[in-house]
């Protein structure tokens, strides 16, 4: 049995808000090198939570959200000078800006509804499909990596007190430095996975 649209929307709000709040806390505790990325992810998560609010329940206008996500995209573009690992954040920001644009009526075939799943306009099918493929692939790969890192934590990191440096589950994430506690590293990956799932759900509602 499927959930009512309002219930699923509020669950999405909760998921994105929790992810954004965790990234905000992480930004306050992170070192200088990782603080910018964590802050960008926090704004991204909280902005996604506002976008997911069902229509008629808040004053969150699509133009404001469009400005927020354009800002996070510029921030991610600036962070790209530190390495290509920020490209995913850039793609996510652009995807959210694209969806906000369709909600403003500025995109092709856009309507006048507000909020996801409430009759708002859809963008170009090719672009929407490409974003769906990207985020579906990211969710699958990131989910598999999280499961593997959790299952092999005790062996790879030398016990419950290990660090992220002890895991050999794929290319190193520069945002998770060698001294990052294992649990914190897993929470960070879970936060990014949650936001990718939220983006995928919003794209499916276009």
Compact overview of the structure:
With 206 residues, the protein is mainly α.
Task: Please describe what this structure looks like.
With 206 residues, the chain is mainly α. The chain has one domain (5-204). 67% of the residues lie in helices and 0% in strands. It has helices at 5-29, 32-52, 62-79, 87-104, 125-151, 153-157, 182-204. The longest helix has 27 residues, at 125-151. The chain crosses the membrane at residues 60-80, 87-106, 126-148.
Helix content, binned percent: 55-70%
N-to-C CA distance: 22 Å
Q: Measured on Cα atoms, how large is the radius of gyration?
A: 17 Å
Q: Encode the helix/strand succession as letters.
A: HHHHHHH
Main sheet overview:
none
Which spans of ≥5 residues are poorly predicted at pLDDT below 50? 108-115, 153-172, 174-179
Strand % is under 5%
As for the number of domains, it is 1
Work out the helix count. Answer: 7
What sort of overall outline do the alpha carbons produce when their principal axes are compared?
globular
Mean pLDDT rating: 77
Strand segment count: 0
Strand-pairing-aware structural class? mainly alpha
Keywords: Membrane, Transmembrane, Transmembrane helix
InterPro entries: DUF5134
Protein name: DUF5134 domain-containing protein
Organism: Streptomyces subrutilus
């Amino acid at each position: 049995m499927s959930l009512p649209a309002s219930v699923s929307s509020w669950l999405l709000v909760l998921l994105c808000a929790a992810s954004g709040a965790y990234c905000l806390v992480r930004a306050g505790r992170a070192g200088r090198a990782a603080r910018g990325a964590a802050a960008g992810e926090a704004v991204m998560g909280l902005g996604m939570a506002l976008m997911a609010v069902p229509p008629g329940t808040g004053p969150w206008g699509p133009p404001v959200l469009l400005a927020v996500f354009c800002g996070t995209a510029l921030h991610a573009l600036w962070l790209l000078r530190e390495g290509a690992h920020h490209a995913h954040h850039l793609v996510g920001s652009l995807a959210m800006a694209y969806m906000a644009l369709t909600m403003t009526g500025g995109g092709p075939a856009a309507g006048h509804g507000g909020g996801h799943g409430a009759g708002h306009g859809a963008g170009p099918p090719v672009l929407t499909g490409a974003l769906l493929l990207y985020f579906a692939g990211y969710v699958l790969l990131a989910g598999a990596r999280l499961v593997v890192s959790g299952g092999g934590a005790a062996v790879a990191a030398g016990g419950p007190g290990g660090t992220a440096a002890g895991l050999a589950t794929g290319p190193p994430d520069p945002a998770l430095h060698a001294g990052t506690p294992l649990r914190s590293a897993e929470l960070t990956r879970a936060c990014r996975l949650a936001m990718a799932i939220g983006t995928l759900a919003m794209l499916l509602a276009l």
